[in-house]
Amino acid sequence: MTADQKWKAVSENDEQYDSIFFYGVKSTKIFCRPSCKSKLPLKRNIVYFDSIKQAVKAGHRPCKRCRPDLLEYQPIREIAEKIKLLLNRYFNQENELAKEIGQIGVTGRRMVNIFKEYYGITPKKYYNYLRIEEAKKQLINTNDKIIDIAYGVGFASLSAFYTIFKKNTNLSPAKYRKGNNHGIRSEN
Ligand SMILES: [Zn+2]
Question: Half-sphere exposure (CA, 13 Å, Cβ side) for 111?
Fold first, then answer.
């Protein structure tokens, strides 16, 4: 994140950035979560920290109001890695995936932001990538119908599958299969 993006998050009390970064106030030596409802400090008095450790090291104390220190038990990297693990495992089972991710304790936009911040890609893009990779394998190695493959790898509709497949490979699933699937008799 740039300093401008951080400033925007702080001035909007945007809680989806909580634990992605922290901000301290130079004059008071107190640090906060971006979502802290305390009075907005002057921009020039703000200093940003990536972690609680960093803030403490710089001599800042946690704010009594937003208690940024209470976020420490869930380091961002751990959350991001957990989400990735679940995406790898459940990319083709939407309900199961939602359930498992819910158990981490972060959902919705915040989950998306943590993942994106850490891996540079949204969870959706990532699991679509996994789905397409799996579909490619099945197109080449099986004679399964394309519609069955589409649902099997987790797409909710055939048209969504076609759109994303084409975006990733520049080919339709049928063309992709035809181009790679020499040994197996083709099917419509
Ligand atoms: Zn605070």
Answer: 18
